[in-house]
């Protein structure tokens, strides 16, 4: 069965149902807003698609109407899916079980997919749900020792209200269907909240990247890409992956190369993936820009006199204490920026334990990076005490706690021991919904992942350019579609215009007054790609933060609910405005 067959099989609902859905947009109470979803189970040789209601949920509005769940622009086929509250579940059992058994959060907290759902519910004042499509890919890998291993991988697409869908690829041993789908859903809301015109997706490859050689990882990534190509799960107009936990620019370069080999006539082929090295069509970023997005948002919050005074803090980053969990791409770059702005990083947690500053000066992030690179661990770093229990680090006193590792790290069993005043979610989904309730009661403010990590920008040492959150990915995608770097057409023109203006002003004064060479150079300098990226990033971040802050104030809700609300409204408007075809 092809994917479009799968779509068309579903009942196409009448427009009046869409109108009822719109009516509910105007304030009907939705108690449980659930999804209908579809899955594609794909093996390397055969493709089997099971349509199932993955997490069938009851949608109730005040009229007790049932709502259509609209699957739009599904690879060119518009259709309405689901709709009735309880559908025949068909082949659900096997897949539903596997979804439920995976991705469980600790200690009875909801699993990650349920958490995203709950956050969505908390924000939803109206019903709108979107389908998931999950590609489950299995393929054999010939290992160096001659054995063959079956690799399990996924790509989940959450919402096609905008195309392409977008989201990173994870490489981690705990990857599963549940986690991939939850992360895909988060991507939908994240893109909407920062107004980046993509639907949500996510990929996952279930391996521990540290246990494989670079050659083996290349084989895995290329094979994964070829599976995605075969199934139409990748392409500049369809689905555009990016880095995530455990992957980086090198993996993205392999994806691009594989795609271009398999689709040599696609002139926009390089836009099939973002987070690439600069030489492969990545976007330029500078060393100082690393960790910028999370830093920007934390800084904006801490600079807001009114908001911080409620937490009995003075405004500003300077002198504030920070704890970072996860000293990887996101964590170390964020720590770097905060330290450079005068913040004190007092502890860092890693998977094998944590370190606590003993000097009182705050940790030297550059020195820890160098230490980690040689020792393969941060533990034992001079001037610190080592804690073997990484979880303890989260519970130390500080102003801002930055979880930058994985989801569900702050849950119902440790939330009451967290002593931070603010939690800045650099990772995706680090706080479970139960923990959020506990933290809120204790007056702890959460800056949500949706907003924070959409703006991540970072640069690895050496030859790779910046890889970052989805906002920067958006700029890279645009650059690739333009087939030209930002500033190429305008930079010299800007420079000659400004030069002519300065010359004219100097002549006008007529008294020989001249700008110094240095000042002249600074003023005349045209915008480079980096300038465009920073400016676009800062604009996107400031506007998004301002929207979230104001919505939270108006609705009297927390920042996460405000962010989801903004996202839901944008997605709903998109469905409403684009109508139903055919
Ligand atoms: N890389 C990217 O561009 C983006 C990443 N994110 C999110 O940020 C988070 C981190 O991603 P990256 O920094 O790229 O991954 P990474 O793989 O570079 O770093 C993660 C670090 O966390 C550590 N870690 C793992 N489990 C831990 C635990 N239980 N306690 C403490 N540390 C632990 C790992 O050892 C590693 O050093 C993820 O949630 C990811 O989805 C979000 C947006 C973009
Ligand atoms: O840059 C992208 O396209 C997605 C990054 C990502 O996976 C995320 O924000 O979680």
Concise account of the structure shown:
One of its GO terms (molecular function) is glutamate dehydrogenase (NAD+) activity. By secondary structure, the protein is of the alpha/beta class.
The mean pLDDT is 78
Q: Based on CA inertia axes, which overall geometry fits?
A: globular
Question: Please, what is the CATH homologous superfamily of the largest domain?
Answer: Leucine Dehydrogenase, chain A, domain 1
CATH class of the largest domain: Alpha Beta
Unreliable runs, pLDDT <50, ≥5 residues? 1-103, 126-131, 286-290, 459-466
Assign the structural class, choosing from mainly alpha, mainly beta, alpha/beta, alpha+beta, or little secondary structure. alpha/beta
* Gap from first CA to last CA: 21 Å
- CATH topology of the largest domain: the name is Rossmann fold
Keywords: Mitochondrion, Oxidoreductase
Subcellular location: Mitochondrion
Pfam families: ELFV_dehydrog, ELFV_dehydrog_N
EC number: 1.4.1.3
